[in-house]
Amino acid sequence: MSLVSALLWIAIALLLLYRFYLKNIKRPPNYPPGPPRLPILEDYGILLLLNPRHLHRATARLANFYRTKVLGLSLAGTPAIVVRDGDTARKLLTRRELDGRPDIFVARMRQQEFKLRGISFIDGPDWKEQRWFFLRHLRDYGFGRRSEQYEQLVEDELQKLVGLLSSAHGRYEYECDFVREAGIVKCPDVFLVTLSNIFLQVVIGERYDRANAKSLLKAGRKATLFARNADDYGTIFTYLPWLRFVFPFTIKYNKLRSGAMGLNHFLEVIIDKQMQTFDPNGLRNFVDMWLRESRNHVPQNNQVGYDNDQLVLALADCFIPATVGIAIQLSMLLERLLLNPNVLSRMHQEVDDAVDSERLPTLDDRVNLPYTEATIREALRIDTLIPSGIVHRTQQNVSFQEYNVKENTLFLFDLDGINNQTEVWGDPRTFRPDRFLDEQTGGLVLSKDRSLPFSVGKRECPGQTHTRNIMFLVVATLVQRFDVRPRESDRLPDLSTRQTGLLQGPNDFWVQFVPRRGNGSVK
Ligand code: HEM
Question: Which atom of ligand 1 is nearest the CA belonging to 391?
Fold first, then answer.
């Protein structure tokens, strides 16, 4: 080879190296530290390589490696920043510029024709209007506030749950899937019917009786399928949508679609039933409010508006966390109680002392049950249900700390990392409800709870109060009536087998509820 051609090859190689440096290693000015980018998927590929079961833990490893609480990534061409520090997250989450959501494929996948609908994944004026409408009118029917009438209906559902757990076996065929003899039940399935009924009461003013509740179990399982197969970074289909046609990715894609379409179908059926009996002069429930609005509303160009697709997807945005979300959170709490029987004993004692055993606990008992309340707070902290929250998007250029970030950058808040920061909690991995109690009086000290299970800011979870109320009622009821044990054939729960999809949680597991002092035999 002549000298000239050798030099030419060297020049080409250097150019290619320089191009690789610019594209994969060089970081934009004032961008947070982070890893170089792999071809195609870039840092999403690195996350998959590091920890495919828990992407938030993969980012934690990277952040520790780069010794930073603000990690800069690039996800297949989109800049993304992960915040792992509570104070920084609080400041950023309350900035309007960060209230946007990216247009991600996994959000579109939830709709038959891939339209972007609902509340959680839209932004701008549509999001404000839809979120306001939902919150305002769900509250009218008891959601997230004190309402004697609603609490009575919730109690009724809890009586049914106590009856189911006390029975020797499922009374109806579908119940036999998750109830075995002697109070042995499968989590999270066992909570799905109760929680669906509690939510549907607000939405359609109706509940399903035990004999006819099979469709609730089915809808809850479809929602679980979706929640377990999505992920906090939008799934691989957000970056390479065509992969859905390539085996074996088709399997995951089909599960996601089947979960989403199955849930939508259930919601469409209940909405249809409401439509048939709708009377604009006699509004009965939330769906009626919506139907009236949809008739009065004149749709503008490109506006999300008040059509049927929007109702179905926005309801799905609420139904998934209100049923599967709370069911999984309760299941993780049960696992913690199995591992910490001393906590359960203290709750037993507290409930026995404070609540008359002739009746179920109510929200009025809350002030007298600080340890129970602290245990629920500890469960929400240590087992952060949505470990990375829902991804935010900058709606304009943003500066914070020493960083300058461009419009359309993704922001992920590592809520799990924040809720388990050693500097804040001291012993974050220990399940210790006492951390929220006053050492002298034993009372609950809210200012000690610096966790962020529901995020903060304008995007803060609108279901927070509902969740806290319902979790309190379910947990206090179960504790009053039952002892909780692993099945005789099972070992104690192994928390390392948990998985993170959209939500973090255990695989299905069985647990035994043993009635206490005959308390379990209700109706
Ligand atoms: C254990 C229960 C729950 C937990 C841990 C939880 C947590 C969260 C978190 C972390 C977010 C993301 C906030 C952000 O983007 O910064 C969120 C959003 C949301 N949650 Fe919840 N949630 C729960 C229950 C509920 C319930 C019962 C509802 C029923 C209405 C609900 C409805 C929503 C909606 C609609 C959003 C999107 C809000 C928006 O984008 O404006 N959640 N939730």
Answer: 15
pTM: 0.95
Q: DSSP secondary-structure letter at 22? A: I
Structure tokens at 410: 């993704």
Q: Is 461 annotated as a binding residue?
A: yes
CA of 459 to the centre of ligand 1 (A): 8
The bridge status of strand 392-393 relative to strand 184-187 is unpaired
Ligand 1 centre to CA of 120 (Å) is 8
- Report the pocket of ligand 1 as residue ranges, CB < 6 Å: 119-120, 131, 317-318, 321-322, 325-326, 329, 385-386, 389-390, 415, 453-455, 459-463, 466-467
* Fold of the CATH domain 23-515: Cytochrome p450 (1.10.630)
Ligand 1 closest atom vs CA 458: 41
What residue spans define the domains of the chain?
23-515
CA angle 227, 203, 197 (to 5 degrees): 65
User: How many Å lie between the centroid of ligand 1 and the Cα of residue 119?
Assistant: 10
Cα 302 to the center of its chain, rounded Å: 29
pLDDT by residue, tens only, the chain of 523 residues: 688 899 999 999 999 888 877 777 777 889 999 999 888 899 999 999 999 999 999 999 999 999 999 999 999 889 999 999 999 999 999 999 999 999 999 999 999 999 999 999 999 999 999 999 999 999 999 999 999 999 999 999 999 999 999 987 788 999 999 999 889 999 999 999 999 999 999 999 999 999 999 999 999 999 999 999 999 899 999 999 999 999 999 999 999 999 999 999 999 999 999 999 999 999 999 999 999 999 988 878 778 889 999 999 999 999 999 999 999 999 999 999 999 999 999 999 999 999 999 999 999 999 999 999 999 999 999 999 999 999 999 999 999 999 999 999 999 999 999 999 999 999 999 999 999 999 999 999 999 999 999 999 999 999 999 999 999 999 999 999 999 999 988 999 999 999 999 999 999 999 999 999 755 444 4
DSSP secondary structure letter of residue 508: P
Candidate from 461, 465, 475 with most ligand 1 atoms within 8 A of CB, to mutate: 461
C-alpha of residue 462 to centroid of ligand 1, in Å: 6
The DSSP string of 321-367 is: IIIIIHHHHHHHHHHHHHH-HHHHHHHHHHHHHHS-TTS---GGGGG
